Amino acid sequence: MANNIIGVAIPAPDPQAALASIRRAEELGVKAAWMTSGGDVGDALTLFAAAAAQTETILLGTSIMRTWTRHPIVAARQAQTIAGIAPGRIRLGIGPSHRGGMTQTFGVDFREPLGHLREYIQILSGLSHDGKIDFDGRHYSAHFAMSAPTNVPVMASALRPASFEACGELADGAISWVCPLSYVRDVALPALKAGAQKANRPTPPLIVHAPVCVTDDLEAARNGVREQLGYFPTTPFYTRMFERAGFPESDHTGWTDDMLDSVLIAGNENQVSDQLNEIFAWGGSEVLASVITVGDAEASRERTMRLIADVSAS
Fold it and tell me: What is the DSSP string of 155-216?
């Protein structure tokens, strides 16, 4: 995978708006579009099938597709369809999501999320890269053959060292989310490398998520993160990650300025460009940017998206 890819998280108020955002990102020269499981789009993979037919080059990735909501064979078949429309452009980022949402919404028995994820990766990767799978595990059974491998990359969300290590061992990449950048550099990346070394394989790509805002008003950018990504510090998985990163009791403090400054990339064009390039310098393979808007939201988003495209092209 080429370095210096900077992708953007696509806002998802509705399917038509999301498609328009993906088309606009490609027009600007942004290399990758990512979608979470939130918003009112419905299903991200279904939307990506439409986006694949309306675009030419932009990479399309889930970040994340929740594993509990569909069997990995179903996910592989959906990816196979999109890969047939847009070869080489679909990427699956998967993850177990959070206990509260998964138990309350789907009634799943949310135990051993990392063990569950490991099996899901093995099945999905086998289907993607080998075209077939015969697997009986603790959480899943899967016996299926496709007409041919699709070679769709199978990445996984990761927060704590054990999950980054599992990605290094099994996945085609690891995806962070609102993690302090020093934590990604000093904790996540070494864990990813350790997992790869354990499996005697090359270290897979590390996709580094960061809120990004090109602005002359740092305080407005901080408040934008609070408004647009506000709940993460209070959720259990993220609370434990922030504690490991040196920010204890985030479930009580919420976003402090120090926490915001540890994750947020903000400033004028030169400052943001330098901060993005620094991630590549210390070993990040790719950046997944959540564009934070301030003031005139449309103009703010365009300014940041143009800078992202410029840095990717440089």
Answer: EEE--SHHHHHHHHHH-S-EE--S--HHHIIIIIHHHHHHHHHHTTSPPPPEEEEEEEEE-S
> Which residues lie closer than 8 Å to 55 by C-beta, 6 or more apart?
22, 23, 26, 86
Report, as an integer, the average pLDDT of 101-115. 67
Where are the strands (E) in 21-109, listed by range?
32-35, 59-62, 65-66, 90-95
Helix, coil or strand: residue 244: helix
**Domain spans of the chain, in order of start:** 5-313
* pTM for the model: 0.94
| CA proximity to 97, closest of 112, 109, 84, 113 | 113
Q: How many residues does the chain have?
A: 314
pLDDT per residue as tens digits for the range 59-83: 999 998 888 778 999 999 999 999 9
Helix, coil or strand: residue 57: coil
Kindly report the CATH number that applies to the domain delimited by 5-313.
3.20.20.30
Exposure of 118 by Cβ count < 10 A (0-12 exposed, 13-18 middle, 19+ buried)?
A: buried
